[in-house]
Amino acid sequence: MTNISRDSDHVEVDGPPYFDYGDKVRAKRTIRNDGTFPGKDIGEVLAKKGEIGYIVNIGTFLQQFYIYGVEFESTGNRVGMKRKELEMVEIDREDDR
């Protein structure tokens, strides 16, 4: 029998996603490849703390959490991240994409 470790008992997917497509976000911590990112070595940095990206996909994990696909501007990497790993960036009207 497999024992799946969950971050908490809170089921985030009971409500709507916190972020929406196109939202500008910042990584709250450095994200490294855990072996699920093709073409990169395990442990290789995929997104640095403070790096800016945009939400390009919204999925779920374990029917508990939303996973946000974030495309980071500086590297072009698309990384799946949880809400607790991201923070919203206010968009300056002159900073339109």
From TrEMBL:
<keyword id="KW-0535">Nitrogen fixation</keyword>
<dbReference type="Pfam" id="PF04319">
    <property type="entry name" value="NifZ"/>
</dbReference>
<dbReference type="InterPro" id="IPR007415">
    <property type="entry name" value="Nitrogenase_MoFe_mat_NifZ"/>
</dbReference>
<comment type="similarity">
    <text>Belongs to the NifZ family.</text>
</comment>
<protein>
    <recommendedName>
        <fullName>Nitrogen fixation protein NifZ</fullName>
    </recommendedName>
</protein>
